[in-house]
């Protein structure tokens, strides 16, 4: 069976809960704190594996307790870790996220080992049985470019979840089959303000002039899909009682990639991922 290759970030997450997120100069008393596996790459890999896909992860951790924790979490989810480098004397990636009473959150990420992956050191068989390569923007652009070019040489389609927002270099753009962005990222990339499903569709259509397949997620509104030379179509969000949006996008990408691997159309895969993301945001955060 084909595998999903996820390449990207691994973070040891410190999760805080508070009534609201602090303003500049403000100290806020929190109500809860716990520690969890994170990083957009790692979260997407585990989501794809839990959805039923074989997954191999490409990334890097430090030789510290946090790195051991991150590797154990991947292995517990049956994600292959033979392509995860363990870097001596380097700290593993980490983040601190604050969730407020409304279920929204803000985070600070320190990349550490994630910035130091040596693509040239990867084993030649890392692409064996690969069906998709999934990338994000939490590693340096040079790493993404090198990986995407290698995948393209192997005939492997490349998906990038372009988060956090930053410019996509022409060398990387030329390798991308599927672009996934949220409302803020879409606005930054195509200058269309995404405030509802109609504007999400407009953004997706504009981005599809550059990328063969595009998904623009619009939070509680839903999402828009557009493919090259086609009109966009939208999918409303599944109504749920929101607990926390943390990790919803990563859940979406992981489930989407698993569905695409099984032969689903982009629309059918997006529908499955939309349902999975809705279930995710309505569950309490897990340690």
Automatic annotation (TrEMBL):
InterPro entries assigned: PfkB_dom, Ribo/fructo_kinase, Ribokinase-like
Keywords: Kinase, Transferase
Pfam families in alphabetical order: PfkB
One Gene Ontology biological process: phosphate-containing compound metabolic process
Gene3D superfamilies cross-referenced by the UniProt entry: 3.40.1190.20
MF annotations from Gene Ontology: kinase activity
Domain Carbohydrate kinase PfkB: 1-283
Name the UniProt record assigns to this protein: Carbohydrate kinase
